[in-house]
Amino acid sequence: MLEFLRGRDVLVAGWGVSGRSLIEPLRDIGARPVVTDAGAKALAEAAELGLDVATCVELETADWSRFALVITSPGWRPDSPVLASAVTEGIPVWGDVEFAWWVDQARIYGPVRKWLVVTGTNGKTTTTSMVHSILRAAGIASVACGNIGLPILDALRRNPGPQVLAVELSSFQLHWAPSVRPEAGVVLNVAEDHLDWHGGLDAYAAAKARALVGRVGVVGLDDPVAASLARRSKARRTVGFRIGVPADGELGVVDGKLLDRAFTKAAILAEVGDISPQGPAGVADALAAAALTRAIDVAPQFVREGLIEHKVGPHRAAFVRELGGVEFIDDSKATNPHAARSSILAHPQVVWVAGGQLKGAAVEDLVEEVADRLVAAVLIGTDAPVIAAALARHAPEVPVVEVRSGDDAVMGDSSITDKADAIMAEAVRAAAGFASSGDTVLLAPAAASLDMFADYTHRGRSFAAAVNSLEDGDIGRRL
Predict the structure, then answer these.
(1) Are 229 and 197 in contact, with CB atoms under 8 Å apart?
(2) Which residues contact 205 (CB under 8 A, 6 or more apart)?
(3) Rounded to whole angstroms, how far apart are CA atoms 216 and 442?
(4) Residues 6 or more apart from 225 whose CB is under 8 A from it?
(5) In whole angstroms, how far apart are CA 297 and each of 51, 253, 379?
(6) What separation in angstroms does the CA of 180 have from each of 28, 102, 225?
(7) Tens-place pLDDT, residues 251-300
(8) Helix H segments across 210-299?
(9) Bridge partners of 319?
(10) Per-residue pLDDT at 181 exceeds 80
(11) At what angle do helices 456-468 and 414-434 cross, to 10 degrees?
(12) Residue 431 CB neighbour total at 10 angstroms
């Protein structure tokens, strides 16, 4: 399949983590990588490594016949000028995941691996980590890769290599990877996110459904859109999971125990109390991870051991501190309303710290559903007024404070970073002032972070730093 690349130029579109991971595999199969990127600094870095580079402007008048293939970074939209030109000139466009799939199928780096693919609007990283933990408990050589941070190509090149890949894939990556046929794949949930990239919810859901094309497909039955994808699944077998009592062919929860009725008549997999993070979202992710690993015959005892060993990663419903009977929780990874919903519903009384870039997602339904749990709301970021308006309509009795910067700016220098940290510190002090013993101050932004912070991890660190600077007198001072 990859022989057509030998001795030919391959355009690498985007000099990010995924772009860098392409270089050695391309050279290993005898292709010549050429790098393009919109940033001059990125191209200079690639050139310093001895790579051929081409600016986007140069490609407008380039002889496209020199390229056998374009491999794009996942964030590049199909209507990007470079990619659109390649399609017009008849040059195939693959994503880095598509290329990794064919590298694996060609056995460039050893025997073909089993791919266990995880996608969904929320919970991808937690579920992928759980899958990896279960595989480790079973003694199966594995690695967590893809959107979780480690490029798949880097995972394939490891020596000794893994037998199974726990692969987190975003909707962008799935869009550019039509050939991937996982051993098992799960769609956890589908809610409004990245609609500006895909052009609408239907296209976004269709990209997610590409995880359901292998031997086993798994869908989250408590999520209506994910559940509806079962009818569109092209997997040879499709099963579901739910937080309630499972029917035949499902995984679920009975009397506080995770139960498999899909891959056996009935097998207890774990106790709900074993799961980290606690709450419905964590249990759903554990059921999904169990389904993927049970699909490749991992025994129930190893599912349990792996789930017990798994601990939640940073900025994912992570406990920061208890002060004056108030718990402070960092769920900065809740970057859309669907994720924020799960986070808020895990606590009975919440002082909500939220805001950022909603990216076209609506918050009306979220606010209406969680209104009775909100003690107060403290809002930051570009779309704080949108959330404030929703609160005014659906939770008019909830106190709301907007902490404004005056001019939300693109990140890039230390002064802007300091400003974002100062805004977060003010927001945390305000939130603590509304809290009393038994409450939870919860950072669950329901929005992306790039209007103020370098990324969601920076936002989470900023929240934790602000929390750790609080004193006893900051609790309840507004009450």
Answers:
(1) no
(2) 190, 225, 229
(3) 37
(4) 189, 190, 191, 201, 205
(5) 44, 20, 47
(6) 21, 9, 22
(7) 999 999 999 999 999 999 999 999 988 888 899 999 999 999 999 999 99
(8) 224-228, 280-294
(9) 329
(10) yes
(11) 50
(12) 31
